[in-house]
Specification:
Layout: E1 7-12, H1 22-35, E2 39-48, H2 50-61, E3 69-73, E4 80-88, H3 89-99, H4 103-118, H5 126-144
Parallel strand pairs: 1-2, 2-4
Antiparallel strand pairs: 3-4
Helix pairs in contact: 3-4, 4-5
């Protein structure tokens, strides 16, 4: 039986975003998914700007607001992640400044957030938000210690 290697890709749309340490990030994302009982079949991270995500938010989700992340779950098999995660680099920069943390720290939180959505975590209720934050922190810790 042939074991399929996870396909994780990083793209940028309408911005020039040089995503560094791709292999470390891929290994990290695989580790986070595995720790939640999932494997990654295909996962695309698309980094862009506020306007690009606003258009997606309006066209697909009928939301007329800026957002830092939009996650699309294309999975068809239980336990296997297949998804697209769109991230606004503009929002990451602004949120990092507001929270007085580094850009990379905020980027990792948002990257983990999208992956955790694909693992079934929600963020609508207070209890869901609390659990999501705990899982984000665990994921960031994995990256820091990798």
């Amino acid at each position: 039986m042939k074991i399929r290697k996870p396909k994780i890709n990083f793209f940028s749309e309408e911005i020039d975003f040089n995503f560094k340490r791709k292999q470390k990030h891929k290994d990290w994302l695989i580790s986070v998914a595995n720790s939640e009982g999932f494997s990654i079949s295909a996962l695309n991270y698309i980094f862009s700007n506020d306007d690009y995500l606003l258009k997606i938010n309006q066209d697909f989700l009928q939301h007329d607001t800026y957002t830092d992340i939009i996650t699309f779950d294309n999975s068809s098999q239980k336990g296997k992640i297949d998804g697209e995660i769109y991230i606004s680099v503009d929002r990451i920069k602004e949120n990092a400044q507001i929270q007085q943390i580094g850009f990379d720290s905020e980027l990792h939180r948002v990257m983990a957030h999208g992956l955790l959505h694909l693992c079934g975590y929600k963020d609508k209720s207070e209890a869901d938000i609390k659990k999501m934050r705990e899982k984000e922190d665990e994921a960031i810790e994995k990256f820091v210690n990798a």
